What we know:
Rossmann fold, 18% strand
Amino acid sequence: MDEKAFQRILKQVASNQQPIDFCMPTPLTSELTTYLEFYHLDFEEASFHLGTVDTNGKKIMVQMHAPPDPDGTVLLLHGYFDHAGHLQHAIRYLLHQQKRVVVYDLEGHGLSGGEKLSTKRFDNYGITLQSVIDDMQHQIKGPFYAIGHSTGGAILINYLLKQPHHPFHKVVVVAPLIRSSYWKLSVAGYYFLKPFMNGIGRKYRKNSSDANYIQFVRKDPLQYNTIPFEWLHALMEWNKSMKHAEISSERLFVLQGNIDQTVDWRYNLSFLQKKFPKGEFVLIDQGKHHLFNEVGAIRREVFRQIQQIISKK
């Protein structure tokens, strides 16, 4: 299938106006089947649900994959640039663990509405998260767990620091974003270039040891090549506000690759250890940033750690 034809299919799938129904599976159209097959989200023996949550003036696309007899639900959040289609390995693993998996495309990402790759305030991500949680709790019984990668992890961290009462038994953040690599250079570039530009060109980094995944990212039609300065400003303002956040008694679980060059992981772990003194921190040896899409041995270790965390009392 040529690129233009697939773009039309993506546009058709994104035009879905039905609110997410976590109880009734979504009938599979030819367009939806093509989308699921392309992103390897066509899991056998799992029901598929697709719909929207309208929040903060935007239409957010939500999906759920559910095994026949689930014993819990995981809300899974992706990172910046990504979307549900980058979580196929994590979803498959969690389905094998008999968990429903709820995932939504962040605003400006994937099939969701909003300005591409941008938000005016990081709190907007929290508003969307709360809306999805509310719908999920209304329709599904617990227990509930939350796992967030990179920016998805930052969204969960922000949520925990501002919402002391939440429905999750365990919260896991994987390679969480607090500061990106070359943070000071990024901030300086923002102030220097903002008067002349609206954003900065994206550099495709080798953030996984899996060459097939790197190739997939470059060919993914739902990728975008410019980082808006609006988003970078929102991240900078969020960083400032997080410094003043109260210390949390939450038992946050953090998984971090020790050769990650996308986030400033040493600073980030130090920051999180201060904000979450009861947290548990695990370094993944030879892990780069995209731990859910690493080579097999590293990915299996990540999922083994997640299973141990979820099964802890």
